[in-house]
Amino acid sequence: MGTDYDMRLLDVLRKSTESLEAAGIDDALPDAEMIVLHALGMERLDAYVNNPEMGKADAAKIRRLIRRRAKGEPVQYITGSIVFFGLTIKVGKGVLIPRPETELLVEEAITACKNEGLGARSNDKPTRAASCASLSVLDLCTGSGCIALAIAKEFPDADVYGTDVSKEALSYARRNAKINGITNARFLQGPLLEPVKGRKFDIIAANPPYIRRDELDALQREIRDWEPVDALHGGEDGMDFYRQILSSAGEYLVTGGFIFLELGYDQAGVVLKLAQEQGFKEVAVINDYAGIGRILRARI
Question: Long-range CB contacts (< 8 A, 24+ apart) of 174-182?
């Protein structure tokens, strides 16, 4: 970027973009834009309309952040947050960065809650779960808490739990609950279903680790070198967590309850068969916007 600092914002943005391009960053312009706006605490429209002059301190701060991105650090770690389903989700090293595909899982779970009358078992013919305080949801491998918190926000009377083995990830989840003013989500440490033994849920959701061992080294460096491997590695064939979850989840669901699982790009057929073998009904795979089988939906 050089050492000049008596420049306007758009000059700094151009130099930042050039630095990222030289470092081989694919999305150099949008990444540079996010970093510059984050560093200045400025909205995009204001930046482009006003194009303010940069001082020495601001320019130096931007250069430091751009150097981090040039080394491969994900832009979400640098800015410290990402918007997920309308929520501000804080992230950092030690917690998986939420992906847009996971919002599809949340959409499907919310639709099931509303259309199937889940959590309204006191009524003969329930039609809406949104007003039912008895709705109970579990998010496995919760990480930043994004799935649990999005559902909890949609259904403020629901009882929502998230579990994870990572103490560091759970600290982010609890912080994200506080930041977003969500009080009906609780986060528990432990493997999968173990922290909620004896409980029953209307919905179990999970975005588990599903990367095969031989695929780890081929991941983008932003993922491979920065995001927690324990949140990615699904065993030799990527199926370890699906086997564990599907073999036990039925015992934790109420009759008629649903499970929603995010899938790897080539895992839909195998996971669907696993769910059927474990006695789940109405098993279906929902495609993402690229036409890839991304979400397993099944009922017990």
Answer: 174/145, 175/90, 176/87, 176/88, 176/89, 176/90, 176/144, 176/145, 176/146, 176/149, 177/145, 177/149, 177/152, 179/88, 179/90, 180/87, 180/88, 180/149, 180/153, 182/149, 182/152, 182/153
